[in-house]
Amino acid sequence: MIDHGASGSPPAHVHPVEFGFSLLDQAGNPVPKFTRATAKVCSFNQSRRQGFADFIRHKDLEASGCLKDDKFTVMCDLTVVRNLNHWPGRNIDNDDDGGVAPPPVVVPPSDLHHHLTDLLWKKKEGKDVTISQQDRVPPVCVRWLLAARSPVFEAELLPAAKKDNKSALRRIEIRGVDPHVFKAMLHCMYTDTLLPVTEGTGAVAMAEGLLEAAHMFKLERLKLMCEETLCKRIDVGTVAGILAVAEQHGCRDLKAACVEFITRPGNLKAVMETEGFQKMKAACPGVVMEIVMKQLA
Length: 297
Known about the structure:
Elements (H helix, E strand, L loop, with lengths): L1 E2 L13 E8 L5 E8 L11 E2 L7 H6 L9 E8 L31 H11 L6 E4 L7 E2 L1 H7 L1 H11 L8 E4 L5 H13 L9 H17 L2 H12 L7 H10 L3 H11 L4 H6 L2 H9 L1 H12 L1
Parallel strand pairs: 6-8
Antiparallel strand pairs: 1-4, 2-3, 2-5, 6-7
Helix pairs in contact: 3-4, 5-6, 6-7, 7-9, 8-9, 8-11, 11-12
């Protein structure tokens, strides 16, 4: 619910709004089933509440997977309408309720990505390329989607598409990427979201692996998503490994966050005692020297 004011007295001047609520999953993405938006413009100078009484039932919330430690997150999108004079269907009435009539046609937010995800990722329609990897059961994918998302796949798949029999499956082999990481990368390429990963070292290892894969296949958005995830998981035990990955793949902001953490008072000594620091010292000696020089500055 959105409350117009506890006192019940309307403000001197307000703008009408459109608003919507979305339940967020553990990865911070809206759940389409539990996303609701107003079908008309609402005036906020009325002493009443706005919202959806049937937004979600308690049992549906428990079954959604969005409830963790008795907590859940709801995102509110609020759009303030300032130019009502040009709004089609406006009621030209200067009474106290603002004289706002709903537009004759309300266009909902684009749901193209939901349709593509359902058709291509969940139902696996249109698959025309098989990806072989380390004797695993090969995933079968959609050639044009891989090419659209990654310039590496574009160079690999599109020239061959002109020569191949369009009814036959194309087979390519991928090396140097863990199969679990590659599956998570495909999920992001299809849905533009990260797979939910449990907290702890597993989440860090997956984000590091995904960052390396994103760098390999030139998936810049996925690379940034992984950098953001790793920035939130920097601590004494993880910072050396994260810093090594950042240095190897040119992630300047992630590297700066790691260096800033290490050079905080008391952190350097603790980090130097970790196994990850010894590996980083061997793989990235220049970074170690940079940290030392910053400490001496």
